[in-house]
Amino acid sequence: MRPLDIGIAGCGPAGLATALLLARDGHRVRLYERFEAPRPIGSGLMLQPTGLAVLERLGLAEAAVACGARIDRLFGKAGGRTVLDVRYAWLGGRDLHGVGIHRAALFDLLHRAVVAAGIPILCDRTVSASPSEKGGGRLAFDDGSLSPPHDLIVDAMGARSPLVGEAAHPLSYGALWASLDWIEGFDGSALEQRYIRASTMTGLLPIGRAPGRAHPQAAFFWSLRGDRLEAWREAGLEAWKSDVRRLWPATAPLLDQIADPAQLTFARYAHRTLSRPARPGLIHLGDAWHSTSPQLGQGANMALLDAWSLAMALRRSKRIEEAIERAVAMRRSHVRLYQGLSALFTPAYQSDGRILPWIRDRIVPPLSRLWPATWIQAAMVAGTFGDPLTPLGLEPYASPAASASTSPTASPASSASLSSAEALASTK
Ligand SMILES: Cc1cc2nc3c(=O)[nH]c(=O)nc-3n(C[C@H](O)[C@H](O)[C@H](O)COP(=O)(O)OP(=O)(O)OC[C@H]3O[C@@H](n4cnc5c(N)ncnc54)[C@H](O)[C@@H]3O)c2cc1C
User: Fold this and answer.
1) Ligand 1: which residue has its CA nearest to atom 29?
2) What is the rounded radius of gyration, in angstroms, for the C-alpha atoms of the chain?
3) Would residue 134 count as lying in a domain?
4) Structural domain of residue 261, as residue ranges?
5) Which CATH number characterizes residue 14's domain?
6) Tens digits of residue pLDDT in 72-129
7) Are 217 and 210 in contact (CB under 8 A)?
8) What residue ranges line ligand 1, CB within 6 angstroms?
9) Which residues pair with 397 in a beta bridge?
10) Is residue 106 part of a domain?
């Protein structure tokens, strides 16, 4: 296909990765972002072997592993009983693992690479309307101005994209999140959780170092019903801390780092899967196409796979519409599968129900230790269930054991990300 002029709205993982891949293929790319300067929001997230496979093709996976924390296991307890124990090693073969990473570190890796590749980012541009409303491949902004016409628009504006007509279904539970300094006494290679039924959940994810910070960090979270946020604020920090300590006494020194409720950000979750994530001249990627609760930890990884599939489809197609159809077709079954799994599992971990958590705590654990349940759980967590990578010509990312970081005390993000950005620039 001839080089296209492509406008990408949104500088999250989907937008930045799409920009890099398409610019590398020779397309003229321009990014639009609502913030005055692009920035990440939130604490940390888990990269899976799927998302890492895309970062590897971008020359950024080793830097992500180096500044994040290698995760080998997901582990959860309810009332002293182990109810969740999933290990990547159960997938067998290569050395697969997750990476807990500070959002700022992931953003920094991608953003530096975009800047190094000379891709223009137009900031303070809040997209307000769909090009089809305003005509011909243009984005409309909230100040009434229009973008120049683009051959293709990529909507990577996340779960609340203004270009999506279908409303998301809000989930009753969300979570309070904070990035805290890592302390000894926890498993540095595990995502750990504690539960009381499905209505109370707290967890800790090692996330390595944020750019410019010497000390490794952890993402700490506490689930909360959206309509109880005000009551939580009114009850005060000390009342909440004593609830957390009762559930997981070892977190007491971590909680000492929280002196102000403003250190905790409340994330609301919503579920939506667009049945038609494209229309002529426009494709929705990442959370704009499929958003859900982060229970399975796949959203950013799926956004990276979406970006890769669009790049592949453009390479393989003669016309834009053919490429859009192909990109959607390559991702559709994986998106449906994981959106379905998220809808299925979220009530077992975040709801007021009693039956599902009872089954989770009493029936599932003994069965889940038997093969092939061990493999199925590990594949679901790794994002490889349903084999999304083969159609995309990718393989799950596996670290060379010697170079993998094995604890939250990994090497500084800034130097690692700079070298990756430079590596990418030199491949162009
Ligand atoms: C608390 C929490 C924990 C999570 N944990 C994980 C995890 O462990 N693993 C995982 O894979 N995923 C996780 N996720 C999901 C993950 O964060 C998302 O799936 C991912 O960020 C989606 O990327 P995106 O680029 O599609 O959208 P976003 O990251 O939402 O980026 C959208 C971008 O568009 C910009 N934008 C929005 N509106 C406009 C506008 N009108 N005009 C211009 N720009 C606009 C935004 O500023 C932003 O830069 C988690 C989510 C939450 C909330």
Assistant:
1) 12
2) 21
3) yes
4) 44-101+172-268+351-394
5) 3.50.50.60
6) 999 999 999 999 999 999 999 899 999 999 999 999 999 999 999 999 999 999 999 8
7) yes
8) 9-15, 32-35, 42, 45-46, 126-127, 156-158, 162, 175, 177, 267, 286-288, 294, 297-301, 303
9) none
10) no
